[in-house]
Amino acid sequence: MKKTGLMVGMALLLVSAILIKMNQSNESLLVSAHEAVKEAYGDFYIPSKAISADVLESQYGVNITDIEDYIAESALMSTHVDLFIGIKVKRGSELEVADALNRYRNMMLDTYAMDSAKRAKIEASTVSTFGNYVFFMVLGQNSDAVLSDENAFLSEAVRESRKAELALSGVFNNN
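RESULT FIELD:
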């Protein structure tokens, strides 16, 4: 009887340890992705104001019941459109969350239709999915105005935005 109780206890400890490890690795995967993106931009990573779950739902349109965990930041100053949203989504809700973030991206494009510098940065952004992780990032070097050809400016914004995609690919393709 003691042996059976000991074996059951050991099995429960093992299962608990596995569940804790899974939770830590999932949590650290989101943190690793965020850190990799921040590192890719260095001093040009602007978002630093945490976005609350309430704001993520009310402003960005993401249903909180679809989320397991997230890291979301916006720029402190409204003169910047920089944004990082990384969400670990509950299985099966990836499309709903990606759709909500794409709707918000489209709203941003409409809002900044007359500001070609901000619009180019938003236009260069994408909503990306890696398994059950969804990301929306508006990142890159800032310029107050388009000083040259708008197409060249957009091309530069796309190159800047690509840094985030490469950082995420590095994290998710290595796990």
